[in-house]
Amino acid sequence: MNAKTAKQAEKHDFGKVGVLYGGRSAERDVSLMSGTGVHKALRSQGIDAHLFDTGERSLAELADEGFARVFIALHGRYGEDGTIQGALELLGIPYTGSGVLASSLAMDKVATKRVWISQGIPTPDFVLLDADSDFLPVAGTLGLPLIMKPPHEGSTLGVVKVIAAEDVRAGFAQAAQFEDVVLAESFITGRELTVAILGTGRSAHALPVIEIVAPEGNYDYQNKYFTDDTQYICPAELPADLTERIQAVCVQAYRALGCEGWGRADVMLDADNQPYLLEINTSPGMTGHSLVPMAARAAGMSYEAVCVEILRGARCKVSAAHPLQA
User: Fold this and answer.
1) Does the annotation count 155 as an active-site position?
2) Residue of 104, 155, 186, 283 marked active site
3) What value, to the nearest 5°, has the Cα angle with vertex 126 and ends 120 and 130?
4) Which of 2, 182, 231, 255 is deepest in the core (most CB within 10 A)?
5) Is 185 designated active site?
6) Which residue positions form the known binding site?
7) What is the largest CA-CA distance in the chain?
8) CA dihedral 221, 227, 228, 231 (to 10 degrees)
9) For residues 149 and 182, what is the distance between their CA atoms, to the nearest angstrom?
10) Edge-to-edge strand order for the sheet containing 17-21?
11) Catalytic one among 27, 185, 192, 211?
């Protein structure tokens, strides 16, 4: 270890750190990229970081590793939905990001919407569909085009844009390859934005807004992670007062779910400059195409710095003073 790295290690005395990545969700490949990037960044700062693939190794092995804290770079089910968070609480290992409840709520797009609606936070109208639903009224209720998506997937997996009323059933069938119940949502025509958020409670704050301009407006899995055709405008070219309003409603939405540490809110801005919240990611991507690092750079933070900042906030969320422990 050279003098510079030794100084960094002293500055960031986090002990042995696990970077949880991979996993068993449909987003495994993205998580492998995120975790590799985070691991490299932490190691470059002199942090004793080690990769741990939760899709290939057991919780018993995780317990035996002796991690002082872990950075969750998992995406999707079993990593972003409260399950790994619950296991870490039981193991007493401090972890990055949101706790069990907030992770579970944010992963469930329907539960998220219900919380936001109760708080007056704007989100597109929706209906839930299953194989026995009456598909005829859907287009009339939500308008056309409309969006269909699995309620518990990320990275735009299973997302279908339905243009014509006669295609509603086919759109359902495509989205239902991922889940039996499908979320049908009004399509908001306008600008696609995303807002990264760092911090917890009153300290939570938004990073610069990013506008996403995808080929033919199709910001799908391929255009997210594997092509250079999508344009990202950061900071988004918006009036200052509108930027502040969008950032404020995103922080409000983040707090409403009880999110902690970090996250990223996806937003549609209509022609009247009304923002509509689509979802919050509680363990966003950290790949070379990812948006949290991009927003952080615009705020003057390097990739390495934002990784360290997120790691610094790692903690168990369940109080050690639980009455059953007395």
Assistant:
1) yes
2) 155
3) 140
4) 182
5) no
6) 266, 279, 281
7) 69
8) -20
9) 6
10) 49-53, 17-21, 69-72
11) 27
Catalytic residue among 31, 103, 186, 290: 290
The residue type of 222 is Q
pTM to 2 decimal places: 0.90
Would you say 225 and 286 are in contact if contact means Cβ atoms under 8 Å apart? no
Instruction: Yes or no: say if 236 and 273 are a contact pair by the CB < 8 Å rule.
Output: no
**Terminal Cα distance for the chain, rounded:** 44
Residue 285 half-sphere exposure toward CB, CA atoms < 13 A: 20
* Contact (CB, 8 A) for 218 and 283: no
Q: Is 186 a catalytic residue?
A: no
DSSP state string for 187-239: ---EEEEEEEEESSGGG-EE---EEEE-GGG---HHHHHT-S-SEEESS-S--
Domains of the chain: 3-96 (3.40.50.20), 106-122+189-312 (3.30.470.20), 126-186 (3.30.1490.20)
Give 209-259 pLDDT, tens digit per residue: 999 998 765 544 454 444 577 899 999 999 999 999 999 999 999 999 999
Binding site feature residues for Mg(2+): 266, 279, 281
